[in-house]
Structure formats: structure tokens, C-alpha cells
């Protein structure tokens, strides 16, 4: 019997790769930031599956809350769209 | 749409590569046991039978952060301090004025926020105070708590936060208090060494082979794990108000900043 | 398909997906001229490095988090401790990553402030423009 943890780890690693690519290739910075936050959520699930509750507690507020908020402040003060 | 297709293609390439690696026998299975160092930490972290090596805390991560590798964490706290000081010094000369302002989102959002912020504070305090018993600790609680000022700034505007007394100076002094508390707890063994004459080490928690100094592991019958609870509380203060300062400064509008910057150039 | 082969495939996929994420984020850091995009890529890169650190310390299920869950009011017996030590995951990478995330966030905030300062002084966050405007 294949362990469920391994399957879920593989699924969330795939999701993380998918959204990391989207975050890097997107020209609109706000959208890129949202993709990056989704990718961070996938990593939070990976941390949870790897039996690291301490890391989940610190990673969820920082990577899904504080960091997108800080970058949003930055984007609001600068330009929203990346020039080609 | 094209971007999603390319991203899906990336995933398909990863699947094909891992099939090739499986057939070819490259890479290999993950997770083949842990190292002996991990077994040492896990066996000794809450082991009253081995008084000289234990941290008297059931939480292995907090014990390593503040006891076994305590000095590393102390220096990382210094890096944190320097980074925040860098942010503050980039905004030197900018005054955060207080004024009455009814700016912000709608009344519903404000009411919901007023209900949620106390909950956030309670959760963060719980994470900090139980950091030596359950998953959590000073860093986690500080990160959870730092979300509160962000929400207040977004929903109410920064004037609300300033009017409630959370100014840059207050946040700076509370953060310095947290750092001072960390330094004090780290130096208490040395003070004990000077006053009683028996050997003690900086950041010592429980008794060591050649030192009888020890923080009390139990207070009134409840487990406080020696110095770990104090480090957690002070780190909670330092991290919370460090992030609060940064967000207060980030929320200053650009006209104010440009006025100060322009003034510096023409002096 | 045997269970061993599927398990090996899943292990390889996890590794390759993480290596792919590192590759994508490194591409973002090096090739994208926009400083904000560079910051986003940098955080993805550090997070992936942290995932690798935790991955090294993982133990095959059934395993438990590195928190002792026995009775706390009485001293635990040696058998309980040995059972815990032989089933929990490695706490050392978790402790290192824990501080790395918070400190990395503070350093990232400093980078964000410096980017803001670059925008105030040059009027752009595009590295190509900043290079032209220098001096």
C-alpha cells in the first residue's frame, strides 16, 4: 500500500511548481503576487505533511499574510505592470 | 490561457522526467531514517532521568531554538534587529502625525475587524505562552500577531493605530524592551555566578555537569521549562513590534516622504 | 506496478518538482529586470530551500511531530522516551528553518524598503532604466 503522505506530498509539490511558474511568467505584478501566495499555501501544506507544525504556524502568517501585504504596499506606491 | 498551458506542460515534463528517473534508477527513494543527532535531541529534550542534558520541555523545536542552539538564535535576533533598524533609518526625519480621520473601509468590515482583532491577540498570546508545551513559540506568535496591525492599517488607516497609542516611538521602545529582556535572561546565569560564586554559563537553562545553576523547571506545579518561557515572551514582543514599525512606515503616503527627501537634497 | 516502484516514482517526482521550482525561481531572480519580480522570485527561492531542509529530516510514516505528547505532570518513563525518539521526525532542521523564515522576512522587508527608495530616487524599479539613469 502506497503511503498517502507521499501521494499528497507529490500533489502539493506539483501545485507549487505550477504556481511558481505562473508567478514568474505573469507580467501583472498583483496577479504574480497572488500566484506566489497560492504557491506558499502549497508549501504550507507540504510543511504540515512533513510533521512540522511549528513551521506551519510561522509560515502561514508570514508567507500568506505579511509578505503579500508588504509587496502590495510596495506595488501600490510604484507601478503595477512590469514593462516588457 | 497560454500561460496555464505552458505551466501544465512544465508539470507534464516533471512527471516524464520522474518516470525516466524511476526506470533509469537515478535519484532514489526519499526518507531513509533520521541522523543520530536527531535521536539524541528527541531522547533528551524532556528527560528528567538525565538532568545534565535535558531542556525540560516536551517541545523539541523550541528547546533547540532557545537552549541547545541558543546563541545562534541570539545572533539571528541581532540580524532581525539590524534589518528593522535599517528600515527605520531609511525613513529618518519622517514624522508620523496623528489626526482624526474617518478613512477606511465600510462599517461592516470595521465591525468585523473589531471582533477579530482581540481574537488574533488572544491566539498569538496563547501561542507564545504555550510555546514550550505545544507547537509554537516567540517567533510563531510574533508572526501571527504582526497580522493584526496590517489588518488595522488596511481597514481603518494608520491614523487609527496611531490614535490608539501604537506610535513609532512606543513600538520601538517595546521592541527594545523585548530585546533587553532576551539579553537579561541570557545574562542571569552570569549574575548568579558573580553573586553566589558557583560556575554558570551564558544562556544556560538546566543544570550542567560542572554547574549547579538552573532556572526553575516547574513554577507552582506547572511546567515552565526554565528559561524557555521567558525567551518566548520577550521574542514575541520583539518580533511583533519590529513588524509593526515596518508597516507603520510602509503606510506613510508618498507626498510626506518626498517632502522630507527633497528637503534633504536642497539643504 | 508494484508499490515500491510507485513509491520511487513519487519520491522522484517530489525531488524533481522542487528542483524545478528552484530553477524557475532562479530564472526569475537572474533574468527578470523588474525589482519587485526579483523579490517575489527570491522569496520563492528561499522557501524552496527551507522545504528541502525539512525534507532531509523527515522520517517515513508512521511518524509524529517532534513534540512529546505523554503526561507532563509526572516524569516520563524511559520506554516512553525511547518510543518517542524512534518515531518522531528530526527537530534540528525545523528549528533552523523556523528562525530562517522570520529573519528572512525581516531582511526581505529591508529589501522592500530599499526598492521603495530606488523608486523614489530614480522613478522606476526597472533595473535596465536604473542603470541608464545612473550618475
Question: Could you walk me through the main structural features you see in this protein, from its secondary elements to its overall organization?
Answer:
- Chain A has one domain (4-77).
- Chain A contains three helices and no strands.
- Chain A has helices at residues 4-25, 29-49, 53-77.
- In chain A, α2 runs antiparallel to α3 (53-77).
- The radius of gyration of chain A is 15 Å and the shape is flat.
- Chain B has one domain.
- Chain B has ten helices and two strands, in the order ααααααααββαα.
- A two-stranded antiparallel ribbon of chain B has the order 1-2.
- Chain C has helices at 3-31, 35-56, 78-85, 91-122, 127-133.
- At the B-C interface, α1, α2, α3, α4 and α6 of B face α1, α3 and α4 of C.
Instruction: Count the domains of chain C.
Output: 1
Using only C-alpha atoms, the radius of gyration of chain C works out to 22 Å
Low-confidence stretches of chain C: none
Distance between the ends of chain A: 50 Å
Shape of chain A: flat
Whole-number total of structural domains of chain A: 1
Instruction: Report the structural category of chain C.
Output: mainly alpha
**Number of helices, where a helix is a run of at least 4 consecutive DSSP H or I residues of chain A:** 3
Low-confidence stretches of chain A: none
- In round numbers, the mean pLDDT of chain A is 88
Strand content of chain C: under 5%
Query: Proportion of β residues of chain A?
Result: under 5%
CA radius of gyration of chain A is 15 Å
Descriptive tags:
heterotrimer, A: 84 residues, mainly alpha, flat, B: two-stranded antiparallel ribbon, 10 helices
Topology:
The complex is a heterotrimer of chains A (84), B (267) and C (135).
Chain A: H1 4-25, H2 29-49, H3 53-77
Chain B: H1 2-24, H2 36-44, H3 60-68, H4 70-90, H5 107-129, H6 138-156, H7 158-163, H8 168-196, E1 218-219, E2 222-223, H9 228-250, H10 254-266
Antiparallel strand pairs in B: 1-2
Chain C: H1 3-31, H2 35-56, H3 78-85, H4 91-122, H5 127-133
Helix pairs in contact in C: 1-2, 2-4
Summary of the model, kept short:
Chain A is mainly α.
